[in-house]
Amino acid sequence: MKRLLLIPDGMADWKDERLNATPLEYAETPNMDFIAKEGACGMVKTVPDGFEPGSDIANLTILGVDVRKYYTGRGPIEALAKGLKAKMAFRCNLVYVENGIMADYSGHRIGDTEARKVINELNRQLSNEWLRFYAGRSYRNLLLLDKEFGQVRTTPPHDITGKAIEGYMPEDGELAEVLRDLMEKSLEVIPAVTEKANMIWPWSGGKMPSFPDFSKKWGVKAVMISEVDLLQGIGRGLGMEVIEVEGITGYVDTNYKGLAKAAIRALKGNDFVVLHTEGIDEVSHEGDLEKKIEAIELYDEKIVGYILDRLDIEETKIMLLPDHPTPVKLKTHVAEPVPFAVTCKKDDVKKFSEKACRKGMHGFVDGLRLMDIFFC
Ligand SMILES: [Zn+2]
Asked: How close is the Cα of 323 to the center of ligand 1, in Å?
């Protein structure tokens, strides 16, 4: 038996007053409804209590990784996503501090090229054999340490806008001293390169995670197909093969056919394929309701429909769920349960939506149980 896991990022939503429905309920989605009708449904909590509803947390949970045990921070996940090797990683913002106050956590949205120049200069002056900076996008960069340290307490810079930084510098132990020293020295290095930022701010760091091997755990050959490096990194971290698709944009104008074809092709030589797509989440972040409905219909037709036309659901079980809701009204993620449908067993649900799936036979389940349900 083969298995295909479909994850349309951020598809779940809240009810819109004018539509008197959620975008998913309102949209025409005959193919997703078919999966609900041929299978069994439920609601699933993909973000454990106390965690931010990030795509990393939600997707790790879906794939059976207990983030309470394995999640060490945003920095390590981002490093994993970029295929970087080190013992520890921190998110390293370029920030602007004025008279000891956190004036801008995003370095006035510094451009990629300018940020890269800053990172190069920081490496030239402050790196050593076990410490280096890595350029990401804009103010979102990484600090990699190839040396073991104990824990350290750091604060997200966006939480202290307008506050004196002194009370929020890294604390406790040897690593805190290393970070404080780097931060102070960066105050002299950065202003020579840019006016947008003047200091580094390392946070959400920790040891690089070692996730349990998905393929070994379930005795399958597993593949990850995704438009974003975050999910590719998670796939790699779980021991999956990562397949690249050409012409993808991570938006509603992506290469749907290429993605759907890649999934079908991957199922020929493997037992388990994840197909994660990003476009619906992007339009949700834009807060555009009409565009979200359109994006959901495109997904239904060009991904789910294309696949159903070419796949025998007697031979390949399909599970479908968004990783988390991204309400257009809020333009960001929330940690609420999402609907899921899976073509193992069968219940009375005939539509794939937030409301309909509540009546499914699986009821309300913990995200960590999803794979047990899928490997029925
Ligand atoms: Zn997501």
From this structure: 5
Task: With cut-offs at 50, 70 and 90, classify the pLDDT of residue 71.
Answer: very high
Beta bridge partners of 140: 93, 137
* C-alpha 122 – ligand 1 centre gap (Å): 32
In the prediction, which pLDDT does 172 show? 82
Give the angle 287-291-295 at the CA atoms, nearest 5°. Answer: 115
29/82 same-domain check: no
Residues 367, 220 share a domain = yes
Ligand 1 center to residue 281 CA distance, Å? 7
| 3-state SS class at 122 | helix
Mean pLDDT of 262-269: 98
SS3 3: strand
pLDDT band at 83 (very low <50, low <70, confident <90, very high): confident
**Ligand 1 centroid to 69 CA: how many Å?**
21
Question: Cα(164) to centroid of ligand 1, in Å?
Answer: 33
Q: DSSP label at 2?
A: E
**Are 366 and 250 in a shared domain?**
yes
Residues 227 and 368 in one domain: yes
- Asked whether the predicted pLDDT for residue 229 surpasses 90, the reply is no
Do β-strands 222-226 and 241-242 pair in parallel, antiparallel, or remain unpaired? parallel
CA of 251 to the centre of ligand 1 (A): 13
Give me ligand 1 centre to Cα 78, in Å. 14
Burial class (CB in 10 A: 0-12, 13-18, 19+), 369: middle
What spacing in Å lies between the alpha carbon of 9 and ligand 1's midpoint? 5
Mean pLDDT value across residues 223-238: 93
- The CATH number assigned to the domain holding 50 equals 3.40.720.10
**Does residue 200 share a domain with residue 217?**
no
Q: 254 and 181 in one domain?
A: no
Residues with C-beta atoms within 5 A of ion ligand 1: 9, 55, 323
How many domains is the chain partitioned into structurally?
2
Same domain for 163 and 216, yes or no, is no
The parent domain of residue 250 ranges over 2-71+210-374
pLDDT digits (tens, 9 = 90+) for 10-66: 999 999 999 999 999 999 999 999 999 999 999 999 999 999 899 999 999 999 999
